[in-house]
Design brief:
SDR family oxidoreductase, NAD(P)-bd_dom_sf, alpha/beta, 10 helices, 7-stranded parallel beta sheet, SDR_fam, Rossmann fold
Length: about 300
């Protein structure tokens, strides 16, 4: 299996890359942060570290520095994959980079316009550019899989305001990207799926809650929903399950969350639980009190 995880430096992208490695995939791990130079996000995680984790898990990790807003760089990447592998079986569009560009619960006319438009470029344009260049390689063979990583399923997001117009628009757009690509890829026997993690314990989120993976439950004192959080490996296992499912076309065009796929395929998070934060959030709307442990 040959996979491209666009946006594999950290968080969900890293978790997906590593779990694809665990099922033996060769994974091209792309992003902007390398050991030589950090991206504008100025975080320590690198694509080289991700690639090493992929290889350690049992696959072959290949780090490639790519800015997915630059079509020429993405074109060169897909040409390299074609030259080295001759095929592409899995494309994961996980590029984001919009952290810190929003003001929550602030009307659009009070938002910084440049930051808002940049969020759209980072969260939507990057996915379009990558699919444009990668899909011609994928459709050479039946059985390909495109995973569009978003925040919130279509059904969860549609009736709710996601606290910032630009953020709301990006995450709904990514759901729609999966739906439309599924339509266009169906004649080639390839599936496109929108997938959202739940409350993700990414590197940045752990820092935000001033906890580590060892004591993460302490974060629930600040935010009860954090008790239903999940590791990046959970979404990674969801993608691995889709990628190895010969009947994956049944998911084409759908918008699903990691918890739903965990129930379907029988995998768990690293602690053996099956977090379902989206059901938790829906059930607690209006102030209803529930036990978070019932959602693991």
């Amino acid at each position: 299996m040959i996979a491209l995880v666009a946006g594999a430096t950290r968080g969900t992208g890293r978790g997906i890359a590593v779990e694809l490695g665990a099922v033996g995939a060769t994974v091209y791990c792309t992003g902007r942060s390398t050991r030589e130079r950090r991206s504008e996000m100025d975080r320590p995680e690198t694509i080289e570290e991700t690639a090493e984790l992929v290889t350690k898990a049992g696959g072959t990790g290949i780090p490639v520095q790519v800015d997915h807003l630059e079509p020429d760089q993405v074109k060169a990447l897909t040409e390299r994959i074609d030259r080295e592998q001759g095929r592409l079986d899995v494309l994961v569009n996980d590029v984001w980079g919009g952290d810190g560009l929003w003001d929550w619960n602030t009307p659009v006319w009070k938002q910084d316009l440049d930051k808002g438009l940049k969020m759209l470029r980072l969260g939507v344009h990057t996915h379009l550019i990558t699919s444009h260049h990668a899909l011609p390689l994928m459709i050479r063979n039946e059985g390909g899989l495109v995973v569009e990583v978003t925040d919130g399923t279509w059904d969860f997001n549609a009736p709710r305001y996601r606290e910032n117009l630009y953020y709301d628009l990006v995450k709904m757009s990514v759901n729609r990207l999966a739906f439309t690509q599924a339509h266009e890829l169906r004649p080639y026997g390839c599936a496109a799926v929108a997938l959202t993690p739940g409350f993700l314990r990414s590197e940045a989120m752990l820092e935000n809650f001033a906890v580590t993976e060892a004591n993460w439950r302490d974060g629930a004192r600040r935010e009860p929903a954090f008790a239903v959080s999940e590791t990046p490996a959970y979404t990674g296992r969801a993608v691995a399950a889709l990628a190895t499912d010969p009947d994956r076309m049944r998911w084409a065009g759908r918008s699903v969350d990691s918890g739903t796929l965990a129930k379907e395929y029988g995998f768990t998070d690293v602690d053996g639980s099956r977090p379902d934060v989206w059901r938790y959030l829906a059930d607690t709307e209006g102030g209803k009190r529930v036990d978070p442990d019932d959602y693991r």
